[in-house]
Each structure stands twice: as C-alpha cells, then as structure tokens.
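Each record in this resource describes a single protein on a pair of labelled lines. An example record follows, reproduced without changes.
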Amino acid sequence: MKLLESIEQAFRNVKQPNPHELRGIIGGLGLTSDLLAPWIEEPGLLPYGRKVMYQSANVEVIVVHLPQGTETFIHDHGASVGCAFVLEGALTNRIYRLGREGYAYEEAAHVIEPGKFLYAPRGQIHQMSNAGPGRLVSFHVYAPKLSETKMFYTYEQVLDYVI
C-alpha cells in the first residue's frame, strides 16, 4: 500500500484523539525520511518547509522541514492537539507562556531526538527550532485540522520591530 493510502486509512475514522492516540497511529505507519522525501519542501514564504499530506475535518497531517539554524514563529495550534515524530535532526521545542501584557515568555526548552515524539496539548504556545548541523524533518498530526492558530511575540521582538 502506498504511503498516502496508509495515512488516509489510518486517520479516516479518527474523531477526537488525544496526543497519545495519535502517537500510536503514527508509530504504526513505519515512517522514514526516504518515504517522506516527496513531501519534504524547501522554505518558501516561511523560514521552513511545510507540506500538508492529508486533511479531513478531523485531522491534518503535515511534514515540516527546518533547515539548519532555522525556527518557526512562536505559535499555538488553535483548538487542536498535536503529535509530531522526529525523523531527522534534533528538534528543540521551546514552551512559552503569555504575560499579563500579552508578550510571550519562554518557560522551558526540550530537545527531541530522531525516533522520538513531541506532544502539543490544546492551548500550548511553542516554537520549534533546529540548532543542529543538518536538516530537521518531522511528521505532524493535528486534531481537529488546524484553524484559528495565533502567532505570539516576545517583548524583545516587539522592541526590535518598533525601534
């Protein structure tokens, strides 16, 4: 069976999974960088590559490619929960909280090595980065599909923009 067919079959009947259920489904797909090669995109408008592989009302499946030295914007996933599987590189996941004035403040950072999973509970604000020597490739599943996501800024980022 082809990868896209396997993904569609695996997620077709998923309604409201938690991140651990998503992990189980992802783990059963037998993913490798070679299998995902056709969906690994170079950065375009964003500082990283992002390709939607599959989408339904209940689930969105995305391949993310962070070249060396790049990072995502600080963001949330709206009403979605997420689970990601790192295939190549080491993903640094920075967790943020919002201060009273609305700026993002870093609370923690964790490194997720290849073959490991990252969980994104509903409401989490985070940023992913690649500080390693090569590219970072990861496979992400969000439920329900992404909508109403928001970007956030640190106080320093706002000052840099204003000054």
Summary: Helices lie at 3-11, 19-27, 33-36, 155-162. The mean pLDDT is 93. Residues 3-11 form the longest helix (9 residues). The longest strand covers residues 104-112.
